[in-house]
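During the no-cost extension, the postdoctoral fellow (Dr. R.K.) reprocessed legacy sequence entries with the updated structure-token encoder. One reprocessed record is reproduced below for audit purposes.
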Amino acid sequence: MSMLQQMHLYTFGILRKLYEYVLSWAHRKYAGAALFVLAFIESSFFPIPPDVLQIALSVSRPKKAFTYAGISLAGSVLGAVFGYLIGMFFYETVGKAIIAALGYEAYFAQAGALYNQYAAGAVFIAALTPIPYKVFTIAAGVFQISVVPFILASIVGRGLRFMAVAALLYFFGARVQQFIEKYFNILTIVLGLLVIGGFFALRYLA
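Re-encoded structure tokens follow.
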């Protein structure tokens, strides 16, 4: 086992430094491009979610909240495809190292179990909730989930997540920022449960 596989990014407060670095881009000239790149790499290997920068940008410019959500969505879905390719072609050489560096081995095992039971539905759940999305994108390639359902689930799941955040910031601005940041995980889980519950209701009541 390599040193990278033995030591993950939570060691020595590296994640906190990455978080602060991401926030530092909020007031820079190319913040929109930075948001796209962040959303892309977060879907495959980077530990900080794009919501952090999306929220900061939307608070400063509430009228562009949905534009920032669209940027997050585009980068995230393309990044998901990149993660899928890592899992399909480079898991032994690259994918394993990413999972180990982030300390996500247990999540990866759970992703495999969910894929065996729900296939692309597992992608939708991960895309919408705080479950580490990169684990599911890499695992999708490893378990060779059908590409089209994988992409569609990513678009719907991530779209709902980013647009929900955009809507709150568009209508309430900075007043709701602290609330979102404090209860973000709970909010996304609740949103995910409501959407999934809606699908089951339509299925069994139709």
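The mean pLDDT is 77. The chain has one domain: 3-205. The remaining legacy entries will be reprocessed before the final report is submitted.
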